[in-house]
Design brief:
It is built from 7 helices and no strands. It is mainly alpha-helical. Helix 2 runs antiparallel to helix 4. The termini are far apart.
Length: 160
Amino acid sequence: MENLVTTQLAAVSNIALPAGFGADLGKGIGAIALYAIIGLVLMLIGFYAIDWTTPGKLSDLVRTGKPNAVIVTASGMLSMALIIVVAIFFSASDLTAGLITSVVYGLIGIVVQVLAVRTLEWVTKLDVGSTIQDDKFAPASVVVAAVHIALGLIVAVAIS
């Protein structure tokens, strides 16, 4: 019995990690942290861009539970996340190039979203400002949300 345990321990101790495993793991953890920071910053920029170009204070409207503000804000954030995820996924294998690509595509996505929603508002004569401030659900908020998500998908596919 003691010989069997000794043999098993010897087999386990002979397991070796590939050369450079620690360095690769460290680089991977660093890349995750950097992409997470860039993603968070882009999400914040996206939120404030939507907030700045939409009548009313989105954070206050969301905090007070205005259903249309929640729908429009959530769809804008989801759309931005789609763009950022695809930008990261298709970024160059070089970390620096990948980070730059993610930032550039993310910023372009923010601009495209803001312009498209404002264009939608102008073309359809929707009053997004009063819609998001309404206490009751307004079907128009679903249209704005759909535009956010559709544009996020379009920009994301364009990146790929």
